[in-house]
Structure formats: structure tokens, C-alpha cells
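Quick sanity check, PglD N-terminal domain-containing protein:
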Amino acid sequence: MQKIVIYGNGAMARVLFSYAKHSMQICGFTVDDHCIPDDINSFCNLPLIPFSKVQDQFPPSIYKVIVAVGFREMNELREKKYEEAAEKGYSFARYIHESVIMHDDVHIADNCIILDHVSIHPGCNIGRGVFISSNVNIGHDCVVEPNCWINSGVSIAGGCHIGSGSFFGVNSSAGHGIRMGAQNFIAANTVITKNTNNHEVYLSEPGQLFRLSSKSFLKFSRIFD
């Protein structure tokens, strides 16, 4: 069983630990020294080691790293910590939940985190450091460049090319053959139907408050007739 050190001490690190502890030997956590309060030396009941000293307790010859931080700085922080850990001599693991369906000719790079009930169709290439949450569908022959963040319920149609560091909100989607620029922000429930440029933001209209109460709405709409 792989011996793993997780970089992170926030929600993403806790989520990864909850998933990965059943199939990986998670030995501890590490973050930058200034992110650890003076009176704290553990996280999820495992050692929390300052990043400046991590190689002393968890030598790179024995342990691998997974960087589990969120999409801050449009995913640049995750890449930065990957590079810093690589400079210390670490190689990187990846976490793929056992329920993930990976078809033929799929390549998934290191430092990726893929949660439950994801379907990745034939011919896809997933770059390093990509996070994919639950219940995502990625169509055939897609390229997802490094350090993208794909939230729950996202659907990416076949033949898409997703630029590095891009963010997909919950239940957003991209149509067939779309080419997206780097560091796009696609908000929840937003559908992308044309190619995009770098650093663009796409928002959909939020739900509108209706004048009737929920009980009155059901009564007059006859949904359950």
C-alpha cells in the first residue's frame, strides 16, 4: 500500500483523507509553516508537519505526496505547491475512487483527485493536479489540461479541450468539441456552447423568487395530477 503525505489542512485535505484512507496509507499532513497554529501538531489525528521540515519526518525516498488544496488563485496555488514538493524530491500519487469508470485509452496524470461515480470515456487525457468531484461525465477524446477543478454534476461533451486552471461550478457543462482557454471560471448551472478565451468568466441567471408559496405553487401548477 502506498505511503502518502497530504499537502493541506483544510476542507479539501479532510475530504481526500476520508476517501483515500480506505485504499492508501495516509501517514500525515504538511502545510507551509505559517499555516500551522503554535498549539497544533495534528490533523485528522495524524501528524501535521511544517513543510520546511517534512522531508525529515517523511523522506521522499519512502513517501509520495498528494496536494489537496482548493481552487484559490484560479488553481495556481495547487501547481505552486506541486512544484515546491517536487523540488524537495517527492514524487506524486493520485487518488481515483474505486467506482470511477475509466474506458479504454484513458490517461490520468499524477496528483489528480477523482471522487466517486465519475465516468471518463475512451481517449481522454487528464492532466496533472486535476480535481474531479462526484457524478461527473467526461465525453470521449477530451483533453483536460493541468490543475482544473471540476465540481459535482458537471458534463463535458466529447472532443472538448479544457484549458489549464479552469473551474467548472456545480452542474455546469460544455458542448461537443468546445475549446476553452486557460483559467476560465464557469459558474454553476452554466452551459458553454462556443469556444472561449483565456481568463474569461461565464455566469448563468440565478433562480428567481416566485410570488406564490410552495404549497400554493403545487396546488395551481397541477404537477402531481
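Posting the structure with no commentary besides this: The first strand starts at residue 3 and ends at 7.
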